[in-house]
From TrEMBL:
Pfam families with a match to the protein in the record: DUF3493 (PF11998)
Nucleotide-binding is among the record's keywords: no
Organism: Nicotiana tabacum
Bilayer-spanning residue ranges: 85-109, 121-140
Record carries keyword Methyltransferase: no
Superkingdom: Eukaryota
InterPro entries assigned to the protein according to its UniProt record, in alphabetical order: LPA1-like (IPR021883)
Protein name according to UniProt: Protein LOW PSII ACCUMULATION 1, chloroplastic
PANTHER family xref list: LOW PSII ACCUMULATION-LIKE PROTEIN (PTHR35498:SF1), PROTEIN LOW PSII ACCUMULATION 1, CHLOROPLASTIC (PTHR35498)
Coiled-coil intervals, chain numbering: none
Keyword tags: Membrane, Transmembrane, Transmembrane helix
Length: 319
């Protein structure tokens, strides 16, 4: 990862600027930013037009991302704030009781006529101290879980703001695919990406039926070569393969930074190839070192069409 090339894609309106000989991959669904998401693969040649270059690398501020993550955290765990409020209330109540018991204990020790009250006062003080300790521990554990969840959601929001190229004219953030596709991000050298491409071939139809799309990111800066058989008899199969592998990450430095941070948090070697699978709602479902389990995706994920769509959109199975 440390040796990843630092480059960016440039979007142009000229149809002649395309790495795959004027082939345009299109999709059939509506993205959240208004861009069309087509399902067929078409090839066309057009007359040259005026070349215009657009470079956009804007990203939300850390404050807005943090606010979004906090809101999502509240939605995912709506009763956490209530629990933490009661923990604080019980800590305050126990602390106040302990303070009162301490003053009574001092007064009883100073007055020999009240010596008989000391054991009872000590008992109450002990209960207050135990209560404060227990609820302080519960609050600490809840707060630590909250901070960990917010940190994870912040990382997911940072991932959601990374850019993807849909075709030669469409650049959208990764978040545009929420509710549309289950993205599988591959990060590794070009040879690793090519091998993942080969291993996914038997599962192409099953993956597409489950809304899986692949985002291959070559960390060595070498574009992987995807060989598609140009055969009329296999035209439908080839088009489905191209749909599965149509997306391309933009702004390599941002992708490299995000992936390196995740590897560091997971204690994974920077040179190790990894995969990351996302749910339909954009949350991270699973990750690992090495090749993604294409067969497990097909077996465990519900289809995105038919009677299994809608109700089971968030039930992405176990991977």
């Amino acid at each position: 990862m440390a040796t990843a090339a630092q480059f960016s894609y440039i979007t142009v309106s000229s149809p002649n600027f395309h790495p795959s000989a004027n082939k345009r991959f299109a999709f059939s669904r509506q993205l959240k930013d208004g861009a069309k998401f087509y399902t067929d693969v078409t090839s066309s040649r057009r007359k040259p037009k005026l070349l215009s270059i657009v470079c956009s690398n804007s990203s939300p501020s850390s404050d807005s991302i943090s606010s979004t993550a906090k809101i999502r955290s509240e939605v995912l765990t709506p009763f956490r704030s209530v629990r933490m409020f009661f923990y604080v209330a019980f800590i305050a109540s126990g602390g106040l009781g302990g303070l009162i018991a301490s003053t009574r204990l001092i007064a009883a020790l100073a007055n020999s006529s009240r010596a008989a009250e000391v054991p009872e006062i000590l008992k109450g003080l002990g209960i207050d101290l135990v209560a404060v300790s227990v609820f302080a521990f519960l609050y600490y554990r809840e707060n630590r879980a909250k901070n960990a969840q917010v940190a994870r959601l912040v990382r997911e929001e940072n991932l959601a703001n990374l850019k993807l190229r849909v075709d030669e004219k469409k650049i959208v953030p990764l978040s545009a695919f929420r509710g549309i596709a289950r993205l599988v991000i591959l990060a590794g050298p070009s040879a690793f990406i090519s091998e993942c491409f080969r291993l996914s071939e038997p599962f192409t139809d099953g993956l597409l039926e489950r809304g899986v799309l692949v985002v291959p990111f070559a960390t060595d800066g070498i574009s992987p070569s995807f060989e598609f058989e140009e055969n009329e008899e296999l035209e439908e199969k080839v088009s489905r393969r191209k749909r599965l592998w149509q997306l391309a990450p933009l702004y390599a430095t941002e992708w490299t930074k995000w992936i390196d941070e995740q590897k560091k948090l997971a204690n994974v070697s920077p040179e190790s190839p990894v995969y990351l699978s996302l749910r339909l709602d954009g949350r991270v479902r699973g990750s690992g070192v090495g090749y993604p389990p294409w067969n497990a995706f097909v077996v465990q994920l519900p289809p995105v069409k038919g009677i299994w769509s809608g109700l089971l959109d968030g039930m992405d199975g176990r991977v």
